[in-house]
Amino acid sequence: MTITAKITARITAVESLRWAAYPRLMIVRVHTDSGLIGLGETVDKIPGAQGALHGTIAPLILGQDALDIEGLWRFVMDNIMYHGYAGAETRALSAVEVALWDLLGKHYDAPLYHLLGGKTRERIPTYNTCIGFGAVQDYAAWHEDAGALAQSLLADGIHAMKIWPFDQFSEGSFGQYISPAQIEAGLKPVRQIRDAVGAAMEIGIECHFRWNRASIERIARALAPYDILFLEDVIAAVHPDEIKAVGERTTIPIVGSELLMTRWQIREWLEKRTAPILMTDPVWNGGIAETRKIAALAEAFGVPLVLHNVAGPICHAACMHLGAHIPNLFFVESVRAFYKTYFPIIADFTPVVSAGHLDVPSGPGLGVNLRPELLQRDDLMRQISEGDGLAGGRRAMGDHWAVEEIR
To answer: How many CA atoms lie within 13 A of 1 on its CB side?
Structure first.
């Protein structure tokens, strides 16, 4: 068998795309001299990620071989590790790394899940995070009548949903105290769901690390009779011992945390057996390969994985491929309000849920293409880094101070 594909694909430009209509989202396009373009993205705190992308990461990868994903990732991480990697720099690196995998798939005309080693499942279990966007106002719906929303979700083939009915009460006390009356008010949508559809709908409760342990334990006790699927981010992830203590005092499984970036931050979480379910986000944590490494690390501890997915169609597709590949998958998060509104405007990929599951996209790489008209919109904000870059072919940093061009 003769492989005719070009064996390298030199990076010629790194481009970021933003639209005023989607302020949380930054799409990254990595261009190569082969003509192929890879797509990646990240969400939230976009000004910092965009600055890191063009100010720090692009100069390191321009001129390099896009197919050497591991080498490029390690070279960039080696540089950003010096100054606090786990923030804007890692979110930007995640977007680039996803784009490199998309490029690799296009280069070899293979879907991402094949490049990862194939599938362990054909369909991906999902729960709906009840956010609102455009014409789909799931956030307002669960505040008005969560039971009616549960019926709507079931009609769309969605069998699990996540809401956060206690967050609203944390502001007054800075999360230090929740009253019995507030507990009762927070239970209202949970009761509405159970009264409307019974056990047909799984319920996850997001806590957004708004509470101290005394308060979150009070919430957990109140939720115990309602057969809750999980409690997510009960306390900030920097307090693993406190989170573990919460888990030891409730029968509801604890999930966390997408706030932990890379396998190095997650290692202690797993070693301490902080929670029975791990969550991570491939457009925050370092990318697709990092997610696979995190999944393998979790599997070694017998811990299942949730893929956090509240971004755009590129992240969603990446989560589908990873979900198909990872053996210890618990759920992939998805947002009906996003994939039914702006996903079809941005890309040629529209997810469909059936019997609580999502399908894996087909096509090379991620299987997602931007719509051409997206690049002609008046609200587009585009930035491009191009040229030879500053690394000059270097693949390891060595003495940071000995090489002026490496920043």
So the answer is: 2
Backbone angles phi, psi at 321, to 5 degrees: -65, -45
Q: What is the pLDDT of residues 319-343, one digit of tens each?
A: 999 999 999 999 999 999 999 999 9
Model pLDDT, residue 392: 77
Contact 142, 205 (CB under 8 A): no
Task: Sort 377 into a burial class: Cβ within 10 Å, 0-12 / 13-18 / 19+.
Answer: middle
**Domains of the chain with bracketed CATH:** 11-109+377-402 (3.30.390.10), 114-359 (3.20.20.120)
Kindly report the CA angle at 287 between 45 and 302, in degrees rounded to 5?
115
Looking at residue 43, its amino acid is V
Over residues 240-285, the pLDDT tens digits come to 999 999 999 999 999 999 999 999 999 999 999 999 999 999 999 9
User: Is the peptide bond preceding residue 179 cis, with omega within 30 degrees of 0?
Assistant: no
